[in-house]
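Extended Data, record Enoyl reductase (ER) domain-containing protein
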Amino acid sequence: MSIVTNGRLLYAAHPTTFQLPGVHTKYVEVKIDLETVALDGGVLIRTLALSSDPVVRIRMRDPKIDHFFPALILGRPIDNWGVGVVVRSEKPGFQPGDFVYGFISFENYSVYPGPPEAQHQFQFLQKIAKHPSIPASVYVHDLGMTGETAYAGWHAYAKEKAKTSKTFFVNSAAGPVGTFLIEYVRHIHPHIKIIASAGSAEKLEILKEAGADVVFNYKTTNTGKVLAEHGPVDIFWDHVGGTVLDDTLLNMAQFGIIIRVGTVTGYNEEDTGIKNIKHVVFKSLTMHGLVIGIGEAMQTAAVPFLEEATKLVLDGTIKTREWRFEGLQQAGQALADVHFGQQIGKPIIIVAED
């Protein structure tokens, strides 16, 4: 027998505002036998790294509240994007030792896809030919969800427009999607002026390093004034919504494109209304919302992602930045901290070494 201690981060209570480790999430340990645990046609995975993302907060709710993102289940482990190694398999196409990427449970060891009540439409698991020079954790962000979001979103909705555009603005840009996007856009569209915002001096330096031409602190500088000086904006990549979206609508160029990737202002508190939505009509703007892997446009655009992005990571065009939390014991803190904007780089929970 091969009995091990299996750490697990459970969803414990529904938050009403910001989540608290130990209250809304709880770390526990149980014993499991790796040789006999039932797979039910699935795969036993040893987890290597997990992603901490603001969207997990949306899932922390009563399942009676309808939403596009599936609700977490009280008393069960949280799941999110992650990477791991196959230990045992009853699933065709997966063998012990395979490196896998997908929606993985917050456990040292877990069975994919798990019991029927825990399954949802975002679950997936795929084998990846991991490059020996790239750490496993990078496949959670630059070569995983955040990199694919930036790459596929740009190719699906902005690449053609960018050929004739002068100005591109990305807000809350020092996160992993924003920095990947700036570095990638600078690489393929060197003519575009890139405007980027973040919330600290340290993050502004990262944006400059990534290739942004104009950077500003949104906490101390009015977004509308910056865009009025350096715009109008042809392409706007929005992570935030709220008043920033409102200010940018006033400063969009005619026939501009808005790509909405997040609404961070509404994850923990009530959404704020948009006053300047009329400019979508007046300026003939196009607004796209996107979620990774959803819709034909995003799926088609993502096909070349891993091959191209791997080359860009290896040659240094895309620079890896991580904010690491060591061990599943820190996973609850990682999920909470992501909402306060202190992290530099992608928040990653390192569960085990490669």
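Summary. DSSP finds eleven helices and 15 strands in the chain.
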